[in-house]
Write a structure and sequence with these properties.
Rossmann fold; alpha/beta; 7-stranded parallel sheet; about 30% helix; about 350 residues
Length: about 350
Amino acid sequence: MPAAIALTPILSARYRAEHLERIRASAPGARLINVSLEGLADGDLSDVEVLLRGPLPAAIFDRLMARCPELTWVHSATAGVERVLTPAALERQLVITNARGVFSRPIAEYVLMMVLAISRRLPQLLELQGERTWQPLESVEMRDLTIGVVGLGSIGRAVAALAGGFGCRVLAVRRQVTAGVTTGVAPGLGDDEDAPELPVRVDAMVPPERIHEVLAESDFVVLGLPLTPETEDLFDEPMLAHMKPGSWLINVARGRLVDERALLRALRDGPLGGAVLDTFRDEPLPPESPLYMLPNVILTPHTSWSSGRVLDRSIELFCDNLRRYQVGEPLRNVVDPGLGY
């Protein structure tokens, strides 16, 4: 049983009373210590063994970690852990788990919403409505679209499941390639007890060195990669040049996967037809960013993950791991420091 558990705000939301009660029930007798996003604690941190971490900047996380000499396990309430795998954390050899699977369903629904809106010409139809112009537009059926999923983790599988359900052809880029995937998406669409699992069908899967083949054939390319030293700025000018003329890039992963200057050129001069961006190198996106001015860009404020269920799922995952921690069972979603996810 951990003597003390430190809790930082997660998902831009306050803990509700029932969440704190669930944590207490999962670790009876443990002290709960609240820590602000600035690193201010409302209690002694000297015996903290477990940290539930929200979107703490890396520098504040390191300072907080230094004040917790007994810390052994950090659970990140985000899927990306680039701000957790600091040199200090690696030196301490902390066990780090993440929120993989918690956000897969709403993010996949966001992606399909955007694919439908673009293929059915919703932005142009809204413009016509504003102009009071009656002009029917031709659209594209989903079965005539090819969706390229770069990174077939829980988000990528969830996107593939929904896209396949609409009849899209799905291509995927993955480190470990298997022939024709048909499997349930328990970490994604089936992470609620009342949510049925959906089959994932990938028409073709290639390793990273063949990513150009997927880019050249896809009408929409969806980024579901973790941010690591190998993937930062992966979508630079040469990579974007391989994309199918008129295709759209959808980034629901990390802004630093994409070289924004190269993206601007590809949006203005081709080959891209447009981009849906929910994440950026600098957040909030500065008002002077030229991305705001491009007519073929849809921007959202890093909200693809949001739903009324994600906080409950986050707490449930943490509590399940708390129970596992106490009895010595393997924790869920353990991060491999070497891979960065």
